[in-house]
Amino acid sequence: MCGIIGYTGTDESVVDVLMTGLSGLEYRGYDSAGLAVSNSSLAIHKREGEVTALEAAIADERLEGTSGIGHTRWSTHGPPSDENAHPHTDCVDSIAVVHNGIIENYRTLRSELEADGHEFDSETDTEVIPHLIKAARAEGAGCEEAFRQAIRRLEGSYAVAAVFSGGETVYAARHESPLILGIGDEGYYLASDAPAFIEYTDRVVYLEDGQFARVDPTGYVVTDPRGAVVDTAVETIEWDPEDAGKSGYDHYMLKEIHEQPNAIRKCLRERVTEMDATVSVSELDELDHDGPVQFVACGTSYHASLYGARLLREQGIRAQCFLASEYDTEMQPVGGDTLVIGVTQSGETADTMNALRAANRAGATTLALTNGVGSSAARECDYVMYIRAGPEIGVAATKTFASQQVSLALLTGVLSGQYSSQEIRRLRDLPDQLQRVLDESNARTVAEAYADAEAYFFIGRGYDAPVALEGALKMKEITYKHAEGFAAGELKHGPLALVTENTPVFATITGDANASKTLGNVKEVEARNAPVVAVTDSSSDVAQYADHVLEVPAAGPRFTPILANVQLQLVSYWVANGLGRSIDKPRNLAKSVTVE
Amino acid sequence: MDSISAVVLAAGEGTRLRPLTRHRPKPLLPAATTPILERVFDQLIDVGVTDITVVVGYGKNRVQAYFGPTYRNVPLTYAIQEQQLGSGHALLEAESAVDGTILVVNGDQLVAKRIISDVLEGHTETATATVGVLNNRDVEEYGGVLLENGDVTDVTENPETDGNHRLNAGVYVFEPEIFDAIRSVGARAGEQSLPDGITELLRSDAIVRGVVSDGLWVDATYPWDLLDVSFDLFESGLVDGRRRESVATSATVHESAVVREPVIIAPDCEIGPGAVVGPYACLGENVTVESNAVVERSVVDMDARIGPNATVVESVTGVGVVVGAGTTIPGGPGDVRVGDRVFQDERLGALLADRVHDRGANTYVPGTIVGPDSNVSAGTTVRGTLPEETEVRT
């Protein structure tokens, strides 16, 4: 999981472009960064830490050239360090390579190269690539041919870009890792994702798996694995580059929490009509499915899927949920009558992509529910539904979770073909109710009261169960404190042993018919002297048993949990803020996880 | 000037607009359906402003979430004034975000772009400050300026009606000396005011120019003024109230509904069968007007819902208001009570603040104000000025 950028142009701005690109890609990893600029030799700089560390390191350097590559890293092979940072080079620093993905056969390749006398500086899988290219060059191959020969040896996933000393050309290839080509007025860009160069151009070519690209200041060429030139379509992407600013908030996460009412408005726009009781999602006009549904997802998206599967089951549709990394079509009854829905914010999540590819191979119909327009998931699935949340920069997912839930409610309407005007009214009321939660929340007070707790537990039943899981995940991600979420009934089957007076229990009890049962669980933890924080729409009398109450408006049994989750987002945010955590870039995590 | 930097003062609550300002500042209240501040930004960008610093304070989350980091591709920088200690203090909060000559305007008043461009053009090289001035206006509620051959000789906040002071339009161009001037004059009654800073410039013999201009200048002093603001916008043409221009494409209007111009219907609205909307109706985003309801000469803010057969005339609603089935708000004139003051014969049917929930079959006596989050049970006659979270029962 990393971000790569390449640039070649006539305007001598290569270092600026690369540094801007790395900042735009930092959400993909930030434990080290580096760049290589090609002129008569290769100038290579890399540093452990965030992009700002690299920026400081090159502040006094005069780096000149017309082409270069850069990388921001999220470690998979070898800890974060200056040595393990990309770009990597061959023995004589004549070739520099950046890579996102995992080379599965790198041990074999490395032994082979070492036997031939190549010397390695790092522990990374990537370093085999420049040495392979060098070996091919030594055999007499030209730059492009050597690059192709090296790529052909690789097994695994990769987006790779390479430059040669003295050359103006950047060579690139992709297989199961994202890579796009940008076409600017003064040069050409290669990057893992559009934010890397959106400041300069919005014209892009989406590269497909197996394709190679070659860019120099005069133009670009895309070729297939055999070297034949491919006709490519140039697309214009819609993305406001300034959307990447914090607009006065201390953190992207807080900004994104506050953007939720508007994100939901956009998600619903032109998709519901209350007076006719209709739900229509234009991307899914052709979808006519009448069979079982399987969800595949990871992390927060998995919690959204649990919610979506429940919505579908309530309409009589057979729906199951799988962790994408555990989804194995050999073990699941998946066939032509199954709809497999991949829920992924970025549309690039490697685990989810693998599950979707397996489902495609098994003959299932696949649907991507994603925020990533033009992402791998969007392109490889039979159908795509966009959640329209807008860019999310904070690593901890907030507004995209709300938009996923609302999208899943819409999808339920599409698949079941029945949604009452009452339900649609409730959906249309959500933006204002969510604004009300933001306007009136006392989550900060609650967070301050429990900032020193040893651990945090979250419970809920039915539609409130995914809220409990997501509440705990948010708390873990950004506070680094121990937090667990459970279906409320599970508490007494083990976890209760962990409950003490120093472990607050957050109980979500909304309009669900099982509220009274969760109330029983609340009394169980009260008896162990644990502080109780109730998140409730006042549909039960939980408030009288709770030490603190986080109120939410009533939005019916299906939608009130969406509001309850926002209160828990705010609690996690304020706990983490009080602890001085790196909220937008928590340690060890990255926004979009493109490795298995 | 190639690039023009503007500072917009938008940190104050606008307490006279209560109870509409319970959760958001006056700059976010709707002028027709668009926040006042958004219209201020529009005027600035139309005259060529290239970057905007917004001073925010009260309800800042709402402002930041609404506008984000840019508006019409112009970057927005937010400067935060934690405590509202006067207009001069607010400007000081923006000091570190700006450089060189700045244009300063208020974020809660609508000023025609002509006034702004006149002030920009009237700022000469020798001037330290230039102030926009309007003739023939009532100065008592606002600030006044005395002019002598185009030079400002006096600036004051609440001038006597001596016939000599003209209206300070709240549009300024300043050189950086203004910051030291504000600082050196210090606070008066706990507040540092911008006019005091200008007075300090005059005392130090700096040149302060006054530019007399003319054009639309609208300020909502009281909540019901939002109705007049919307009328002014329609009449001046700043808002095109013709149906084909002003009904959002994402709005759904039933074929049997009647839409009477001028009108504005924002995105995601639903207008049910037999409903009559307009003239002079402004429906914010995601407003629902149900079957056979009537809405005219009213400003209905986002997410509100007017129930079946309800009648809403000359009224202002906050966000998320529900007017139940069969409720009647027949319109003004009526007496409005705010604190100890009574405003007689105001054209106000009713003012329902954010998330008032009317259960239906109610009648509102003209001039009624209902505070936020109040519940009005069915079958009541509602009158007077009710505080927030009131439970109104028959």
Compact summary:
Chain A is α/β, with parallel strands linked by helices and 596 residues long.
Written account of the structure:
The complex is a heterodimer of chains A (596) and B (394). Chain A has three domains: 240 residues, 4-Layer Sandwich (Glutamine Phosphoribosylpyrophosphate, subunit 1, domain 1), CATH 3.60.20.10; 189 residues, Glucose-6-phosphate isomerase like protein, domain 1 (Rossmann fold, 3-Layer(aba) Sandwich), CATH 3.40.50.10490; 156 residues, Glucose-6-phosphate isomerase like protein, domain 1 (Rossmann fold, 3-Layer(aba) Sandwich). In chain A, α4 packs across α5 and α8 packs parallel to α11. The longest helix of chain A has 23 residues. Chain A has 16 helices and 26 strands. Chain A has 596 residues and is an alpha/beta fold. In chain A, β19, α9 and β20 form a beta-alpha-beta unit. Chain B contains eight helices and 38 strands. In chain B, α3 crosses α6 and α5 crosses α6. At the A-B interface, α7 and α12 of A face α2 and β6 of B. Chain B: It comes from Natrarchaeobius chitinivorans. Chain B: It catalyses: N-acetyl-alpha-D-glucosamine 1-phosphate + UTP + H(+) = UDP-N-acetyl-alpha-D-glucosamine + diphosphate; alpha-D-glucosamine 1-phosphate + acetyl-CoA = N-acetyl-alpha-D-glucosamine 1-phosphate + CoA + H(+). Chain B: It is an enzyme of class 2 (transferase).
